[in-house]
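Here is one record:
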Amino acid sequence: MSVAVASVLKRERARVCGENAPDQKHSVRVFRDAMLGDFGNVLRLYQQLNPNDPVPDEGSAKKTFEQILASPGLHLFVLELDGAVVATTSLNVIPNLSRSVAP
């Protein structure tokens, strides 16, 4: 694990568990589908990824997030570490003409 990733994980653990959270060798990791309640955490992560981007209007950002979650074939996943959302990834399954039209 890189020093930068370890630093983010430690900061998120402290945010969720309190400033004096012990350094744990075994953390609880959960990889799951994103839910509407993850909106604030996902937006925070994207703002960390692109800090120079303008901050979107919360109403339009939330509507876009709802559209993402409702889009067939588009799956947004989050990774939780000790209850804190620390990463996202997406899977986009689209129609395909190659590979015998397998998506």
Summary: The CA atoms of residues 6 and 12 lie 10 Å apart. Residues 26-92 form a domain with the Aminopeptidase fold (CATH 3.40.630.30). The first helix runs from residue 3 to 17.
